[in-house]
Fold this sequence. Notes:
The protein is of the alpha/beta class. It has helices at residues 16-35, 40-44, 47-55, 82-92, 131-144, 163-174, 195-198, 204-210, 223-233, 269-279; strands at residues 4-6, 73-76, 151-156, 180-186, 189-190, 193-194, 214-219, 241-246. Helix 1 (16-35) packs across helix 3 (47-55) and helix 1 (16-35) packs antiparallel against helix 10.
Amino acid sequence: MSAEVVSSHLPKSVQNLEEIARSIRHHILNMTSNANSGHPGGSLSSVEILTALYFGNILRYDPRKIQWPDRDRFILSKGHACPVLYGALAEAGYFPIEELMTFRKIDSRLQGHANTKTPGVEMSSGSLGMGLSFGLGVALSGRLSKQPYRVYTLLGDGECDEGQIWEAAMSATHYKADNLTAIVDRNRIQNDRSTDEVMQLEPFIQKWQAFGWYTQEVDGHDLGAIIAALNKTKEIKGIPSVIVANTIKGKGVSFMEGNPSFHGKAANKEELIAALKEIG
């Protein structure tokens, strides 16, 4: 059985989201290049996902009230892609955009993995595979305390090699965690090679379905489709939801697209100029 495939044209009301996505791409490239360190490839592939969540009327949040109890929770399980989260949080007003250039500096609030010392970050990351378990715990906590928030967790597809992902997937169905949505950045590259070379994930959609999840498949760079899929998850009752977002690693920069070399390597000065020119 295949997943429901979601597609849509970007509504006029959210045309400005494309400009926000462009700004976040600029932030990713600038902060990683300035630090000469970081993970631009998997950050660039996730830009539209984060843009949809934070600026497409999906997440409920208030950057002036970071600990608002009823806020929706976004958990970055693929924590090395924190530049995309930092860019989105800065654009959302959690901290000044100028602070992005402190990325990976000593005493900066913006370290090389997401950390709860950063305003707006819900989980400190490190080893892959933990975010879905953490997200399930947060979702169940909200249900027990009768809080209305929803939980969204972004996974990498290579991260889905981890057994803990599937333990969490099984548990989420068992506990009927319908306030939990997983989003998989399916860019098909992990570290220095394709995901298929490391571990064959297919049939990927069917695995989630076998664990009892409501599944959708989208073009991970189509903002309208992502927003439609995220809104659909709010209607699903009794089971958790997963959105498999088909993306391109390094999206927006021709020499980074599909290039494993830029998984954990920043652009040099000449490459940065060329990349920013491409993005516009």
